[in-house]
Write a structure and sequence with these properties.
322 residues, 36% helix
């Protein structure tokens, strides 16, 4: 991952809106243990997911697994209370958020801690120095960012170099066949700084699994829930769903499921270290892991590009706290 010796699985397991919220603790444990059996080592969460319950659920689920074989990643930025210092990327909040995450996860160190968003109200130098302190204290091994732009990443690296501090090694980005905004400028800019991509929503909130059809929203799915689908409205447009249906024959040609094709497409770029998926059932997890190691033929990539042009823009669909 990035300019570091840390190695992560091509598929990572996240828990936004799933483990610790819509999935109970017993099933969370089964999913996490199965993920580990399948070779997943990257487990990603955030302090704000379900008001800390996401971290607690993950901490409970990993309790019986060998800690040294896991890469635990979490995040901080969003408000966790009404207190004015319980938010952002200040030295105070990062220190207190990391300590709280360690308690909820039941571990004494984090492999990767990430800035959930950029904090325009805190000097970037303060944030960089706070991470330097936390790493030297042994609470973190590495740090990264999420949904920053290329200039912000470059400036963080410049400050770290100037202070002989640790650079960020990874950035979490929204990326899928339906959202190709990070091509090519952000991926290239971060790669130039030795910062690799961890992508999320690679299945576009489940739309790229093929579960939705134009005019059809199956009951008991996120797309059928008026509250939970607010982050995926653009993905559910008939034009987009029609393109997804045209993708299905390409997956069949390769002997893949639609989800596997979509994930393999994301992982085709070596600058992308991992695609983080969210699942509610073990069967979904097992299917997603089948994308690891798949290499798409050039002809298939050209046909995919024709269906999902790289220059097509859509409004942001990531959740406010994803």
């Amino acid at each position: 991952m990035g300019n570091s010796g840390l190695r992560v699985s091509e598929i990572g397991l996240g828990n936004w809106l799933t483990l610790g919220s819509s999935v109970d603790l017993a099933e969370t444990r089964r999913i996490v243990e199965r993920a580990f059996e399948l070779g997943i080592n990257l487990f990603d969460t955030a302090d704000v997911y379900s008001e800390g319950e996401g971290e607690r659920a993950l901490g409970s689920a990993i309790a019986g697994l060998p800690r040294h074989q896991l890469v635990l990643a979490t995040k901080a930025f969003f408000p966790i209370s009404e207190h004015p210092n319980d938010r952002g990327l200040s030295r105070k909040h990062l220190k207190e958020s990391v300590d709280a995450s360690l308690r909820r996860l039941g571990t004494d160190y984090l492999d990767l801690h990430q800035c959930h968003r950029f904090d325009a109200d805190t000097p970037l130098e303060e944030t960089v120095c706070a991470y330097e302190d936390l790493i030297r204290q042994g609470k973190l091994l590495h740090w990264g960012v999420s949904l920053w732009n290329g200039d912000q990443v470059a400036e963080a690296c410049r400050i770290a170099d100037h202070r002989l501090a640790y650079r960020p090694i990874a950035i979490q980005s929204l990326y899928s066949l339906l959202r190709r905004d990070i091509e090519p400028s952000l991926i290239a800019a971060c790669s130039d700084q030795g910062v690799s991509q961890i992508v999320f929503s690679a299945l576009a909130q489940g739309v790229l699994s093929g579960k939705y059809r134009a005019g059809q929203l199956p009951s008991e799915t996120r797309g059928a829930d008026p509250q939970r689908r607010i982050f995926m409205q653009d993905y559910l447009k008939d034009r987009r769903l029609g393109a997804v249906e045209e993708l299905m024959p390409l997956a069949e040609e390769l002997g893949l499921t639609l989800s596997q094709l979509a994930l393999a497409w994301c992982l085709r770029d070596p600058r992308i270290s991992s695609a983080v998926v969210g699942v509610t059932r073990i069967e979904q997890l097992e299917d997603n892991v089948g994308a690891s190691g798949v290499r798409l033929p050039d002809e298939i990539e050209r046909r995919i590009d024709a269906l999902f042009p790289a220059d097509e823009k859509e409004p942001p669909t990531a959740g406010a706290t994803r």
